[in-house]
Design a protein that fits this description.
- The structure is a single chain.
- With 247 residues, the chain is an alpha/beta fold.
- 38% of the residues lie in helices and 13% in strands.
- The chain contains nine helices and six strands; from the N terminus they run βαβααββααβαβααα.
- Helix 6 links the parallel strand 5 and strand 6.
- The longest helix has 15 residues.
- The termini are far apart.
- Bound molecules: flavin mononucleotide.
């Protein structure tokens, strides 16, 4: 398999890519739902593994209760799929545990500090760790979406180790310069960044400067209009300061 990416949406030299999605127990399940929704549409196959902690966080954040033995695509993205395969994190004999099973790479989103430490140190104590280890040793693409704050020097050193091994580190840190109006906008901005690093380009939110070649001034003007209209201040439907309401 040729694993180079040609830059078109969901296409790798004309064919649809095959990705592994590892989901670990960090905060950020809305990213997972949106990412899986899009990967299901554009990939030939998506091989998905949730850690036990991820299932716990999924229940806390999305109210979706799933068991490792009964993973359900419909419960996650609202439809069944023949291209999404689920594995137990204990199944160290799964296809994705071997380098001979060809994939374009693996994305771990969100990435807990526990799994970050395991992958950075080559531990292979579950399927997510092992699949990531395989992707690194085979020189395939590893996209990591760590989420924790604040970060300790242990976390930072583990990320540096992996960045030096060609992993793409995409912290779950959505920006505000595209004037998000809803949480969905923030999720989409983050997911677009993740997909970009996977070589899958999708216009989920307007890209900076996309509407005009030298878009800087225009965007600043747009942002200040939003501010004066109080839009940024009510991003989550809550006024930030009393004087915003009085204006
Ligand atoms: C609701 C909830 C939110 C959590 N958020 C984070 C987080 O943002 N980052 C993190 O590193 N760990 C977080 N944790 C802790 C991890 O889930 C925990 O360290 C777990 O052992 C990670 O296991 P895993 O890497 O196998 O998924 C959270 C736990 C819970 C229950």
């Amino acid at each position: 398999m040729n694993t180079s990416h040609d830059g078109t949406f969901g296409s790798t030299n004309g064919r649809r890519p095959i990705w592994i999605l590892g989901v670990t127990g960090a905060s950020g399940m809305p990213y997972v739902i949106r990412l899986l929704d899009l990967l299901e549409q554009c990939c030939e196959e998506v091989h998905v593994v949730f850690s036990e902690a991820a299932l716990r966080v999924l229940q806390e954040e999305q109210g979706v209760k799933l068991r490792p033995a009964r993973m359900d695509c419909e419960a996650l993205i609202g439809r069944k799929s023949r291209s999404v395969y689920f594995y137990s994190n204990r199944d160290i004999g799964a296809a994705i545990a071997s380098g001979s099973f060809l994939t374009d790479g693996m994305v771990i989103a969100p990435l807990s500090m526990g799994t970050l430490g395991a992958v950075a140190n080559g531990l292979c104590s579950n399927l997510i760790h092992r699949a990531a280890d395989v992707v690194i040793k085979e020189g395939r693409r590893l996209v990591l979406v760590p989420r924790e704050t604040p970060l300790s020097s242990i976390h930072l050193e583990n990320m540096l180790t992996l960045a030096r091994n060609q992993a793409r580190i995409v912290p779950a840190m959505p920006g505000f310069y595209q004037n998000p109006e809803t949480i969905d906008d923030l999720v989409d901005m983050m997911v677009m960044k993740i997909l970009d690093q996977m070589g899958i380009h999708r216009e989920l939110v307007p890209r900076w400067g996309a509407d005009r070649p030298s878009g800087g001034e225009h965007q600043v003007e747009k942002a200040s209009q939003h501010l004066s209209q109080g839009r940024v201040a009510t991003v989550f439907g809550l006024p930030m300061r009393e004087e915003d309401e009085e204006r």
